[in-house]
């Protein structure tokens, strides 16, 4: 499906304002119904740990499995969900699915961490840490197996409250990453104060690091910055082997991108992984939900 075939907001510029308004309303109703009917699904993209030379985690990426329109991508419906105040429900569903999948993989001997993206409103919700703790304990998944990704803009929204929510999550043992690092407005002062574990450099800098010297300089400096702050550096958007080799040389900790694998449905990812690395002992500690 071409991105232009996606609903509502994606084609807004080609229709009149009136049509645009109607489309948006229709889409919002559909999104509400879609959430009720459980039409959101997750695809997972592997993260290769360069130190361990193994896939140690995956990022959960939400898609809307629309009955007529097919797979709808998050850039189309997340802004709508955010505006309509549906982000709390959406994130609850995503966390539930991701952690249940993590439990199933662990029970199968695939000890993967799962990374979930948070949105701006999630970090204003002081009930989030309690909810996360509940989902983890219901599925018997250790908190260290959950990574949460937040963008710089999100952190700027209401920095004090966001920092409290993040600190509480981190105190539980959940790992935190700054996503799309380098594209927002956050200053080094934020990095200094924030309770985060990983820097995830935006793919805009990673994609051309093998051909563009300025991108290369940014990537290398960010690895150093992350390490000097006691954080790990994750590179997203690794699209070819040359970039991967350079990232290895530059001491980057984890990589993610189309060169390794596109995001995939969970069963396909498990098959891909088994081919790449044989499973370890099953995790008998992981429980089925009550
Ligand atoms: P993100 O968190 O930065 O996720 C990475 C995006 O880059 C994904 O797009 C992924 O498919 C894409 N990508 C991965 N490797 C490559 C590569 O090598 N080259 C290129 N060109 N792209 C690559 P996707 O799945 O369309 O997600 C877009 C954004 O939507 C995500 O960016 C994230 O901000 C947001 N998102 C996705 N799922 C969720 C969710 O469950 N909750 C929230 N709040 N946001 C989500
Ligand atoms: Mg992300
Ligand atoms: Mg990103
Ligand atoms: Mg992004």
From TrEMBL:
Residues 24-277 form the EAL domain. Signal peptide: none annotated. Residues 284-290 have a biased composition (Basic and acidic residues). This is EAL domain-containing protein. Residues 273-290 are annotated as: Disordered. It comes from the Bacteria.
């Amino acid at each position: 499906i071409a991105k232009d075939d996606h609903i509502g907001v994606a084609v807004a510029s080609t229709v009149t304002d009136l049509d645009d308004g109607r489309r948006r309303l229709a889409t919002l109703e559909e999104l509400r119904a879609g959430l009720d009917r459980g039409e959101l699904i997750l695809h997972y993209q592997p993260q290769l740990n360069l130190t361990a030379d193994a896939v140690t985690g995956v990022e959960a990426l939400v898609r809307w499995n629309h009955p007529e329109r097919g797979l709808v991508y998050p850039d189309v419906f997340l802004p709508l969900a955010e505006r309509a105040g549906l982000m709390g429900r959406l994130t609850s569903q995503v966390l539930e699915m991701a952690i249940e999948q993590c439990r199933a993989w662990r029970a199968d001997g695939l000890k993967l961490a799962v990374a979930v993206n948070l949105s701006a409103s999630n970090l204003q919700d002081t009930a989030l840490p309690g909810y996360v703790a509940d989902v983890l304990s219901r599925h018997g998944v250790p908190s260290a197996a959950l990574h949460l990704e937040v963008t710089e803009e999100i952190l700027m929204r209401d920095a004090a409250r966001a920092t409290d929510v993040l600190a509480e999550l981190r105190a539980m043992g959940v790992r935190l990453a700054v996503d799309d690092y380098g594209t927002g407005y956050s200053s080094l002062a934020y990095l200094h104060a924030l309770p985060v574990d990983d820097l995830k450099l935006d793919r805009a800098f990673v994609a051309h690091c093998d051909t563009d010297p300025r991108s290369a300089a940014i990537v290398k400096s960010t690895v150093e910055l992350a390490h000097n702050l006691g954080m790990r550096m994750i590179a997203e958007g690794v699209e070819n082997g040359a970039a991967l080799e350079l990232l290895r040389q530059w001491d980057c900790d984890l990589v993610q991108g189309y060169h390794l694998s596109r995001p995939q449905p969970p069963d396909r990812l498990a098959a891909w992984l088994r081919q790449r690395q044989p499973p370890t002992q099953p995790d008998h500690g992981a429980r089925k939900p009550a």
